[in-house]
Design goal:
Blueprint: E1 4-13, E2 17-20, H1 21-25, H2 32-39, E3 43-46, H3 53-68, E4 77-81, H4 92-100, E5 106-110, H5 116-129, E6 136-143, H6 153-156, E7 161-171, E8 176-184, E9 192-193, H7 205-209, E10 216-217, H8 219-240, E11 248-253, H9 258-267, H10 279-282, H11 289-299, E12 308-315, E13 319-326
Parallel strand pairs: 4-5, 4-6, 11-12
Antiparallel strand pairs: 1-7, 2-3, 6-7, 8-13, 9-10, 12-13
Length: 327
């Protein structure tokens, strides 16, 4: 039997500070009713002033390593999926390596926005399958609150901060990551973007004045593509593995909008008690949403050995991705 990769530990962390919809009613022209009905979000977590992305990574990683029974020194590769790293360079993965005390690891960041964790899972799976890595730490972490325009009601009500982590190791057993699937349509890059601060629009008075360091989103256009794309994606992922929707134990979707999640679940004829939902408490935590949800369902004992678990995400790029896991 060929080598596969297996998740041997999960962890997650969200900052303690809660910002609920009624707090946002005081900041922008919005209402608890609009946010709850249109998105399903009730609260989100916001990092403390001096807390960094790598701090969030560290908390989630320690938990995942503890759950896997792996010491930081044993880790040979660290991948952090993020679009809100501590700084453009060095990578947040290298900063995490120092904080964690994992001197034997290579380290790099990966950016596929909200699909980042599943892109990372796909890369990690390849490293493990080929024997290039034997103990890999993969983190999805975002500090979205630093990149939100708190005057823009169309974006600031949606996002939150948090991190989730997994440890991956090789296995020859039947469980593990069965397949991963990555897609992108760069022609729709401007549906969700943060145009300032990079080499196209380096920081200047003009970029700051024009608010180019904030997340911009064409929400409704993105919504339509997301629903259409994810419905196809979940079915094709199951088909690639000859698994019927009725055999699925759990769907762990990216947490952008409850209406998108419900539409995907309906397409799979999956009852909502087999769908992981946490956006009501954390909002959209981008690349952290899936590993946080995975950690929550794993710790709650909702995953049994041999269960089929489907993960799917959609985000800026546009990018979308999926993975099927036998737990
Ligand atoms: O994670 C990455 C991927 N992201 C996504 O998948 C997000 C996809 N998009 C969405 O989740 C939804 O499109 C949103 C939640 C962002 C917006 O919901 P929508 O039902 O598509 O609303 P809309 O953008 O069509 O706006 C409807 C109305 C507009 O007012 P008018 O023009 O009808 O008068 C908006 O100005 O709602 C207004 N609106 C708000 N009203 C109160 C927009 N944001 C707010 C707000 N509070 N926060």
């Amino acid at each position: 039997m060929q080598w596969k990769s297996k998740i041997t530990g999960t962890g997650s962390y969200v900052p303690e500070k809660v910002l609920d919809n009624s707090d946002l009613e005081k900041k922008v022209d919005t209402s608890d009713e609009w946010i709850t009905e249109r998105t399903g979000i009730r609260q989100r977590r916001i990092a403390r002033d001096r807390q960094t992305n790598s701090d969030l990574c560290l908390e989630a990683s320690r938990q995942a390593l503890h759950a896997a029974g792996v010491k930081p020194r044993e880790i040979d590769l660290i991948i952090v999926a993020t679009m809100s790293g501590d700084m453009p360079m060095p990578s947040t993965a290298s900063i995490l390596q120092r904080k964690l005390g994992a001197p034997n690891a290579g380290a790099f960041d990966l950016n596929a926005a909200c699909s980042g964790f599943l892109y990372g899972l796909s890369v990690a799976d390849k490293f493990i399958r080929t024997g290039a890595s034997r103990k890999l730490l993969l983190v999805g972490a975002e500090l979205n609150s630093r990149f939100l325009d708190w005057k823009d009601r169309t974006t600031c009500v949606l996002f939150g901060d948090g991190a989730g982590a997994v440890v991956l190791e090789p296995t020859r057993g039947r469980s593990g990551i069965l397949s991963t699937h990555l897609y992108s349509d760069g022609t729709l890059w401007d549906f969700i973007c943060l145009p300032g601060g990079g080499s196209e629009n380096p920081p200047s008075l003009k970029t700051v004045r024009e608010g180019m360091h904030f997340i911009k989103m064409k929400g409704n256009e993105t919504f339509k593509v997301a629903v259409r794309t994810l419905e196809k994606l979940v079915l094709s992922t199951l088909k690639a593995n000859n698994v019927e929707p009725s055999e699925l134990a759990m769907l762990i979707p990216h947490q952008a909008n409850l209406r998108i999640i419900s539409a995907t679940a309906r397409r799979l004829r999956l009852p909502m008690d087999r769908v992981a939902v946490n956006l009501d408490r954390y909002g959209n935590t981008s690349s952290a949403s899936i590993p946080i949800a995975l950690d929550e369902v794993a710790r709650a004992g909702r995953l049994k050995k041999g269960d089929y678990v489907l993960l799917e995400a959609f985000g800026a790029g546009l990018t979308w991705a999926s993975a099927l896991i036998k737990w």
